[in-house]
Design brief:
Length: 69
């Protein structure tokens, strides 16, 4: 019976990690998400994209854009 319980726990854990992975992938891909800066093609860090959903530029270009205004 111990084996049966172990298999059950393992399956539950697998299902949980699958669900978390699916959620992580969805969170990583909002409708509008630029992985690269529109101005200089530099990769935009995940933290910046999470903080500013739909952000289009890297920090440097954002600064340039704001100075140009
Ligand atoms: Zn840039």
């Amino acid at each position: 019976m111990a084996d049966f319980c172990d298999i059950g726990a393992e399956r539950t854990e697998q299902m949980l990690s699958d669900a978390l992975e699916a959620r992580r992938l969805r969170a990583a891909r909002p409708a509008i998400d630029h992985h690269f800066c529109l101005d200089c093609d530099a990769p935009i860090p995940l933290k910046r994209r999470e903080a500013l959903p739909g952000v289009e530029t890297c920090v440097d270009c954002q600064g340039l854009r704001e100075r140009r205004k």
